[in-house]
Amino acid sequence: MLSVTDAGAGLLLLIALVSDVRTMRIPNALTIPAFAAALLYHCAADGLDGGIYALTGVLAGLVPLLALHLLKGIGAGDVKLFGALGAWAGTYFVLQTMMYAILYAGAVGLALILIRGAFGQRFIAGAAMLLLSRQPGRPALSWIEAGQVLRFPFMIAAVPGAVTAWLMVGG
Fold it and tell me: Could you tell me which residue ranges the Prepilin type IV endopeptidase peptidase domain spans (predicted)?
């Protein structure tokens, strides 16, 4: 059975994944309430120790990824998302997730380099148009288009990273 913290973190990641894949954005309207809910939950469940647990998790999620954001490796929404994830799941989990997410991001980047050729691009864009289209005439996964700088929603690496961390921690 899932704990409240697992459910909170899982819901946060699921919503962020959908938003990031569709729009390449993780809105403040998701991350700020998620952080507040985690802080309130942990304070209600464990008092001051719970608040310290949540705030320490926030810092563990924000600080390392802030450097990556300043180097233009990830967006600010990803940084805030990891802060909110840390508030829900704690320092150890968010750092584990971060490590696995960065490894998965490398694999995704390599895969995108390989599929950005003409056939791979047409196949992926066609499937995305059918499954995720959000605007008429514009492929939902326009970030795969050949000739563009290699960019992709970090959440497609972060979610598998979180699942891996959850399995490794013994979730």
Answer: 11-109
Within 8 A by CB and 6+ apart from 140, the residues are 21, 22, 128, 129, 131, 132, 133, 134
Q: Compute the distance between CA of residue 128 and CA of residue 126 in angstroms, rounded to an integer.
A: 5
What is the CB neighbour count within 10 angstroms for residue 70?
A: 10
Residue 69's CB is within 10 A of a number of other CB atoms, namely 16
Regarding pTM above 0.90, the answer is no
As given in the structure block, the two tokens for residue 114 are 């390989």
* Tokens linked to 63: 């600080």
3-state secondary structure of 138: strand
CA angle 52, 70, 5 (to 5 degrees): 30
Q: What is the pLDDT of residues 18-46, one digit of tens each?
A: 999 999 999 999 999 999 999 999 999 99
- Which residues is 138 bridged to in the sheet? 135
41 touches 4 (CB < 8 A): yes
In 10 A of CB 164, how many CB atoms? 17
The DSSP call for residue 135 is B
Residue count (the chain): 171
